[in-house]
Amino acid sequence: MPKTRLRLIHLLVAAALLPSAGCGGGESGTPASRTTKGDGPVHVVATTSIIADMARRIGGEHARVEALMGPGIDPHLYKASEGDVRRLGEADLILYNGLHLEGKMGDILTKMARSRPVVAVSEDIPRERLREPPEFAGQYDPHVWFDVSLWVTTIQPIVRELSTLDPAHAATFQANAAALEKELTELDAWVEQQIATIPPAQRVLITAHDAFGYFGRRYGMDVMGIQGISTLSEAGLKDMDRVVGSVVDRGVKAIFVESSVPRRSIEAVQAAVRSRGKDVAIGGQLYSDSLGAAASPAGTYAGMVRANVETIVQALR
Ligand SMILES: [Zn+2]
Fold it and tell me: N or C: which end of the chain has fewer CB within 10 A?
């Protein structure tokens, strides 16, 4: 490729990457002493909609669950508003992902933990099952929900906390958890079957940010995120070249935009591939760090996983 064209692609890529940031940063809260719980459902505030869905399933009618972040919100960049601080302050229990997903909420979670339990749902995951990719600069990859078998391990911490706050309904929480675990175990097997229907050469998942590492590891896809690191750097540009090169060399049919990340970086890849005389489709939108709208098929965790897998399989098969 001529040098000037390569430089032009770099500029396009730089413009695409500049205004947003990726994963990492921040402090995490620690569980503290418990507040005494009165009558009525346990009031749970979860950071992401994905966690809130798990708490709703386990708590059933004995939990009133809210999520701070709605559809399409990027948790890496999310800062608590004044209204959020008030909602957190009214919670009996606060659930967050941990592993630095909520990179800008560390201070507020630490503060809240002085007067109520603040629990990272990822706390039971054995550390050896966590990804520690070099591009995350010494931190674990927080996107654990994309390996369904790994996300199952977030069920028991939620059961424990709800049961401590509302011991009278502990058996119900445990029964709801057992049903959820069964459903997710079946979902995990279904995802594996679906991905296996994609021809091996096409099992490449190219997305806007590095959210799908656990998915690729569990279900056998090569995963490339364009925006793996939080700031623009030479490494970021090399990553973009690597991604464009892979699309061209492997004849990848489709790449994917994400619901919670601006689409311009994926469009920049598409433009760069076209400038090399090849074409790649945008295969649709994947839900990465938040669920879809409440009433939509992707409005639950299981529905989100199914929607993503259907989008991926349809575009690559
Ligand atoms: Zn993310």
Answer: N
Question: Mean pLDDT, to the nearest integer, of 39-44?
Answer: 93
66-116 pLDDT, tens digit per residue, is 999 998 898 988 999 999 999 999 999 999 999 999 999 999 999 999 999
- Using CA atoms, how far residue 233 sits from 217, 230, 238, 314, in Å, is 26, 9, 9, 34
Distance (Å) from CA 18 to ligand 1 centroid = 16
Q: 279 alpha carbon to ligand 1 midpoint, in Å? A: 27
CA of 258 to the centre of ligand 1 (A): 10
Domains, in order of start, for the chain: 42-122+129-185 (3.40.50.1980), 191-316 (3.40.50.1980)
Q: 142 C-alpha to center of ligand 1: Å?
A: 7
- Host H or E run for residue 45: strand 42-46
User: Do 67 and 78 meet the contact criterion of CB atoms below 8 Å apart?
Assistant: no
Query: In whole angstroms, what is the distance from residue 126 CA to residue 162 CA?
Result: 22
**Rounded to the nearest whole angstrom, what is the distance from the C-alpha of residue 165 to the centroid of ligand 1?**
31
